[in-house]
């Protein structure tokens, strides 16, 4: 048996690569948050914005509104268009103030009780919370809160905020929130709605994104309408003006008196998630002043400079590989072609999930454009390799379509570490790049050559001279293992240095 055959058989039969896990062979979105203050039809505006932010979470969606007298809430499992399709639902969410959330579960099961925004009645009135990210000390805090008599209604780490606010001895909602924030560790963008204010906050390192916008046609008193959203594309769809990014460690408070900023934390070097530029954010968003589409094209340009190869066509693995493949083709002079077509209407399989159907699952999402591939030397451009099972199947499809050679180029460095800050990644033992070197990975997925962008190439594409570990403004822990926020719960369970 050849070495290549042995390796490819290992990829097929190894328990961490069984076809049942193909849906896990991608980095999954974190979550989306949204908030509107003094905006006419705020719940309808929230639903539109959540639709634009659907790529950040497809498991569940929810909206909580406030009309000056009472809070109203609707949450459901499924896509935004399904959860809020009934006009009666929207009519039941009145008021000029609302927050919303799209969920992809990184902690907690996919159950209705885990769907956000979370809402609770406090002594000061109602409060709703929407959270994007992961708290790295949530379990530690949860155990302490349970010992104090707190009763948790969900299994999501976001509920920790609710209980910390509830037990705080401070008088105002703002101070109670700050008290809670100072006890948590992790990555978070948080939108909070009370009877008196809408608040948006990012963790001190700014790992997760949050932007501030202004809305024309405010609901009352000729005052401005204000918007919080995970990405700027959530502003564009509702006609809101982008104002700025909420800064790392900043708490922005919007109430009847206007808008103000509070800095409850000591300044730290920001560590924004670099994978937002590579994969997560929508291409038409602008994050931290950087247009995502431009960044991805520049990554492709750097990738071509570093790992060019003679070929006939550059083919993206849709959809995330498209801008980088365009940059690669532009720099290399090799034609860009859509050799793989993605079916955008595939959800969970409706067929009995036998082994045969699981093995055909990738064909439900992707099909080859044979005239583009037949007899060609093909460069496949993708954003990442996680487990490797999907990459192998796509390569097999391309070869079956007649490709003479298949070279894969990846617009991120090798993913060798798990994320603990809000991205759903497999444990490290299931990451292909954590187990094999690049040559072995190439054999496993069946390509003639495989190359990843270098750290310096990635950082050059984002406007820097290269990666300086002491100066980097990005979190790239999934590539480097350099975790900028302590992994309290993980280290308690597994011991330091085991991530």
From TrEMBL:
Active site (catalytic residues): 31 (nucleophile)
Residues binding Mg(2+): 320, 382-383
Pfam families named in the record: GATase_7 (PF13537), Pribosyltran (PF00156)
Catalytic reaction list: 5-phospho-beta-D-ribosylamine + L-glutamate + diphosphate = 5-phospho-alpha-D-ribose 1-diphosphate + L-glutamine + H2O
Protein EC: 2.4.2.14
Residues the entry annotates as binding [4Fe-4S] cluster: 273, 419, 475, 478
GO molecular function, one term: amidophosphoribosyltransferase activity
Domain Glutamine amidotransferase type-2: 31-257
Alphabetized UniProt keyword annotations: 4Fe-4S, Glutamine amidotransferase, Glycosyltransferase, Iron, Iron-sulfur, Magnesium, Metal-binding, Purine biosynthesis, Transferase
Pathway(s) the chain acts in: Purine metabolism; IMP biosynthesis via de novo pathway; N(1)-(5-phospho-D-ribosyl)glycinamide from 5-phospho-alpha-D-ribose 1-diphosphate: step 1/2
Keyword Acetylation (UniProt): no
CDD domains: GPATase_N, PRTases_typeI
Enzyme's top EC category: transferase
Cofactor field: [4Fe-4S] cluster; Mg(2+)
Entry note: cofactor: Binds 1 [4Fe-4S] cluster per subunit. Binds 1 Mg(2+) ion per subunit.
Function: Catalyzes the formation of phosphoribosylamine from phosphoribosylpyrophosphate (PRPP) and glutamine.
NCBIfam families hit by this protein: purF (TIGR01134)
Similarity section: In the C-terminal section; belongs to the purine/pyrimidine phosphoribosyltransferase family.
This protein's name: Amidophosphoribosyltransferase
Gene behind the chain: purF
